[in-house]
Amino acid sequence: MRRIAIALLFSGLALSIAIQAQGLERTIFVDCSAAPGGDGSRRAPLPTITAAMSVARALAGAVPQIKIDVATGICNDETLPIRLDVPGVWLKGARSPIAHHDQRPDGQQHDDTLLMAAPLNPTVTFFVIAVPGVRISHLSIDGELSPGPDGDRPPRLTPLAVSAVRVDGFVLDHLRIQRVGQAIRSEASSGLILNNYLLGDAPLSVSGGDPIAPARVIAANNTIIYRTAGIGVAASGPFGTFLRAKFTDNDVVTSYTNSGPSNPAAIRLAPFFSGTPDVRPTLDVVIDGNFIGGSAKYGIIVHAGQTTRRRDGRSYTGDVKARFENNVISGAVLHPALMTFTNARATEVPCELNPTLPPGPTCPSLPNPPVYWEYLTNARFDLQHTGELDGALIDHPALQPVDRYPLDNVLSINGGPIGYQTFVIVPGL
Fold first, then answer.
1. Which residues contact 11 (CB under 8 A, 6 or more apart)?
2. What is the DSSP letter of 358?
3. How far apart are CA 197 and CA 177, in angstroms?
4. Among 207, 385, 388, 407, which one is most buried in terms of CB atoms within 10 A?
């Protein structure tokens, strides 16, 4: 998988080199310490990426590729979000691709371009990729979000570094993104996420798109440091219900302990993230050669569920096909894997499945207003693994525990059906 990702990236770079050799590339230079009035040339660089994108829009169509070359320095005078809306634009910083943790006291690496939010805005988005073929590389982004004490959570509305929505062919490589809610969010998009350092609450989020032309994402060789979820993957999102994805050779680690009902996990797979899909969402994913470490509660969660009951007679459902190969889950993870047809939070706070119950030892306090967690019905999970799911915690009930109607879900692991059971730790599958 790693060779495939690198080959795809190199093919794009080869095309870029060919364009430059023919003199068809235009480079716009940016130096965030430069005085206003530059024209984007090497001798008179522009002072912001925002200004460079205005020039790029004026050049769009005149040259096949535009490169924005940003010099070493701190860029804190940008107008956010920055819309990358010129097809094929390449935004390149000066960040060295080595030594993820080799930082200076100001948060920069040596020979780095650092983009920061100023003033601090907890809802800011740095970059919005709005067209095909955009590349962002060798850049640092700091959302300035305090990670807080162990067991605490930042506000739900937190900085988002890069958003890609309904676009193809994006490349995100050699980025350092830290102190954000989400580092990268890909919705109904196809692209490569390679050789990045991502630190945040839930650094990488990927969801699906049009079933006729499914979104395809490859994420390889990334270092991901997370609080609640390292990699979140869902078939269904706001723009579609089908996703194909590969995650290979990533280090997914948390420094937080396995506490709290949010069930921190390195990798979460689900038919959907949110919404009420009217067609069956489908997820086809490969998790290969990753290292999962730290002290999370779960290494891998395969789950679903919604926070509200459906009142239209339909059920939440979906298909998940996942292959886990050659992953290493460290001994500090409490459970290597959880497979549940409920929302994963319900495994920790079971009274939320029926908020009419009074508070008790299993749930000292109820949400206000109450939250109803919906079960999946008529869902299908086909999982293949080479040992990563041994010792898994499985929640696969036959009946909805509150209303007692049949769930009719099917779970198979390595081709063998798994019977109905609730919160059973399987020593070996």
1. none
2. P
3. 6
4. 207
